[in-house]
């Protein structure tokens, strides 16, 4: 979360190491709106094994609908090379790879990458998915050359990046001219009535359910905070344009709980 503007980069990034004040691997790790990279990564490491099951329960099964909508919008085809950022355990990446496209699943959390490789890598039952590879990567400093990918997708992960505007520029850099960007992210329902009900669910119901089904319920407190602090559909669209993307558009899913944004890199 699979899902706030940060100051522009003012110099070398800090080393991504846990400091003494961070929880041990056996204590619940909770990120906050500062989105310290080691805390965010550690939080997702701790929930990796049960992450997809928890998401399905907490979203009332809507995560599958959102993933299918993302895959249709990316429209992957055999012969294309696609980057799936914030790929988590690789569920979205596997959906894209079933088209025959060459898919790179990238995530900042080594725990998520390890779980994805266990499920879909060469050692998985049946030999895994041969056209799906896994890479640990920071969305603000992608380890890829310029113009490598026909499309870049990110599902419920941009919200967790400490400098999302820089990440959008990096996505543009690695995309081929004429290539596509697709972002699925939690957003803000435009209906005041439905939005109020959604906030009640997130603030009252979800924390109770998370305590039952998640190995780190505190992580879902962060989820609520990050959604509240995230820009609405128009705000994220403006960020995408500012990064240099064209043909920016979005459509709401589940009455605006999620927004599916799409854009294109200008062709030469």
Automatic annotation (TrEMBL):
What the entry lists under PROSITE patterns is as follows: SAM_MT_UBIE, UBIE_1, UBIE_2
Swiss-Prot/TrEMBL keywords? Menaquinone biosynthesis, Methyltransferase, S-adenosyl-L-methionine, Transferase
> Could you tell me which pathway this protein works in?
Quinol/quinone metabolism; menaquinone biosynthesis; menaquinol from 1,4-dihydroxy-2-naphthoate: step 2/2
User: Which EC number applies?
Assistant: 2.1.1.163
* Catalytic activity of the protein: a 2-demethylmenaquinol + S-adenosyl-L-methionine = a menaquinol + S-adenosyl-L-homocysteine + H(+)
Which GO molecular function terms does the record list?
A: methyltransferase activity
> What broad class of enzyme is this?
transferase
InterPro entries reported in the protein's UniProt record: SAM-dependent_MTases_sf, UbiE/COQ5_MeTrFase, UbiE/COQ5_MeTrFase_CS
Can you tell me which residues bind S-adenosyl-L-methionine? 89, 107, 138-139, 155
Task: Give the region (Disordered) as residue ranges.
Answer: 1-38
- Which Pfam families is this protein grouped with? Ubie_methyltran (PF01209)
Q: Where is the composition biased (Basic and acidic residues)?
A: 23-38
* Biological processes per GO annotation: methylation
Gene3D superfamilies referenced in this protein's UniProt entry, alphabetically? Vaccinia Virus protein VP39
Looking up PANTHER family in the UniProt record yields:
2-METHOXY-6-POLYPRENYL-1,4-BENZOQUINOL METHYLASE, MITOCHONDRIAL, METHYLTRANSFERASE
Q: Which NCBIfam families match?
A: MenG_MenH_UbiE
The UniProt family comment states: Belongs to the class I-like SAM-binding methyltransferase superfamily. MenG/UbiE family.
The role this protein plays is: Methyltransferase required for the conversion of demethylmenaquinol (DMKH2) to menaquinol (MKH2).
According to UniProt, the name of this protein is Demethylmenaquinone methyltransferase
Organism whose genome encodes this protein? Microbacterium salsuginis
Q: What is this organism's lineage?
A: Bacteria, Bacillati, Actinomycetota, Actinomycetes, Micrococcales
Q: What would be the name of the gene that encodes this protein?
A: menG
